[in-house]
Amino acid sequence: MIKLIWxxxxxxxIEFNPNSDAGRKGSAYNKNCFRAIENHSLExxxxxxxxxxxxxELLLNREQNDPExxxxxKAVSGENLNGVILLGDLVFEGSxxxxxxxxxxxxxxxxxxGIPLFTVMGNHEYWGRNRSAVSNVSSRFPQITAGQxxxxxxxxxxxLIFLDSNYGALDDEKWDKQLNWLRKNLSDADNDxxxxxxIVFLHHPPYSNSLITGDDEKLQExxxxxxxxxxxxxxxxxxxxxxxxxxxxxxKAFIISGGGGGPRINLNTGKKLHPDFCKLSYPRxxxxxxxxxxxxxxxxxxxxLNKGSREFFLIESFTLNLSGHSKNS
Length: 329
Description:
Blueprint: H1 2-10, H2 33-38, E1 43-47, H3 55-59, H4 66-77, E2 83-86, H5 97-106, H6 108-111, E3 117-119, H7 132-138, E4 151-155, E5 158-162, H8 172-191, E6 197-201, H9 217-229, E7 233-238, E8 244-249, E9 252-257, E10 286-294, E11 297-305, E12 312-321, E13 326-328
Parallel strand pairs: 1-2, 2-3, 5-6, 6-7, 7-9
Antiparallel strand pairs: 1-10, 4-5, 8-9, 10-11, 11-12, 12-13
């Protein structure tokens, strides 16, 4: 019901925009992204939910975080990285050309360095009253096409799987096709001796203490069940909930990194709480993740930024064993 109320509030403000950036030659800054990341060690940054605050959100007194958004991008561009992973909701409305050009300007300090960028489809990428929304994504991220919005890449013996969790935007045939693809890729990774671990990225979290989004039972039943069946799956990383959360279920890590600048949210503190390793009060800091392989582990650092500040600090650090078990450090 809460999700429906938000959609009804935003719908009158969604602009019909028949123009898109599809086919713009300068927009695809990821032409050789697969080759670039496959040939290097695993040193990645992960950012979730970079979209600007919309007019209806401002009218509801939600945060406008443009300075913090820019500080996060500047900080990430200064890291020693072989890739940047975005967790969807890059813009508020996927069919709005102006918003996409603002996004291009925002990440220019990353793309100018030739750092490969990868993304998953967020719900906002599908927003708009025309078919240009997905085209605006694929013109910048050629990994994603109108026919298939999920893909994988191997880096430093780690299989990185990118899923489209928008089952409401995909028809049943595409959703089933993605599930079969995921089942096969997880099985192939388990049987491939050169693969030491699997990390899955998607926009919507299957588990969350968010008071706005909460849990997603369909993802738990259909995506998490496949993920848990994999011997080598180590972590599932999502955005959507504009906060930072970290859980462990069945020896697997479930991480929410939604601190890229979208208006932050409150978390549930009641009886239905998921046990969260992060004990910070809410709204939690803006943040990004750093993932670096170190032998048989992946070291994860969470760098935070408080509202109105330019100074980053360490929220927490932990390790992911490549056997699929997470461990605090």
